Structures are given as C-alpha cells and as structure tokens.
Amino acid sequence: ALQIVDGGLNNVSNILDRLRTLATESASATFSGDRGTLNNEYQGLLTEINRQASNVKLNTGGNNNTNLVT
C-alpha cells in the first residue's frame, strides 16, 4: 500500500512541477500565446491531482488521509 501511495505522490509532484511551469510561462512579460489554452491545461491538471489523490485514498475521507498533528 505504501508503494501505491508513494507512486501517487510522485505523480502529483510531477503535476505540480508542470503547474509551476505553466504559471511562470503565463506570468512572463514576454508570453505571447493564448492564456486560455494554458488555463485549460492548468485546470485539467488540477482535476488530475484530485483524481490521483482519490486513487491512493488521500482525498478527504480516504483511508490514507490522516491528520498526524494532535
């Protein structure tokens, strides 16, 4: 089970890297592309993060979603 969660978190980490790239690209003063296209990819990646979290039960109410702070 830990390997599955680790794999899911690795996927989320890769997606976060791509989100950062898209945000940086869009915020660049030299960007001349379509921000709508970037936003479509960005929104799709946010959905994918939620899907990945659900797959490894890290979503709200998921078996692996535990608050470790007491």
Quaternary structure: single chain
The average pLDDT value, as a whole number, equals 88
Rounded to an integer in angstroms, the radius of gyration calculated over CA atoms is 15 Å
Report, as a whole number of angstroms, the end-to-end distance: 24 Å
Output the helix-strand order.
HH
Helical fraction: 55-70%
Q: Pairing-aware structural class of the strands and helices?
A: mainly alpha
Largest sheet: none
Shape: elongated
Number of DSSP helical runs: 2
Tell me how many strands there are. 0
Estimated share of beta-strand residues = under 5%
Unreliable stretches? none
Task: Tag the structure with descriptive keywords.
single chain; 70 residues
Characterization of this structure:
There is one protein chain. This protein has helices at about 1-25, 35-55. By secondary structure, it is mainly alpha-helical. Helix 1 packs antiparallel against helix 2 (about 35-55).
In short:
By secondary structure, the chain is mainly α.
List the helices and strands and how they pair.
Blueprint: H1 2-27, H2 35-55
Helix pairs in contact: 1-2
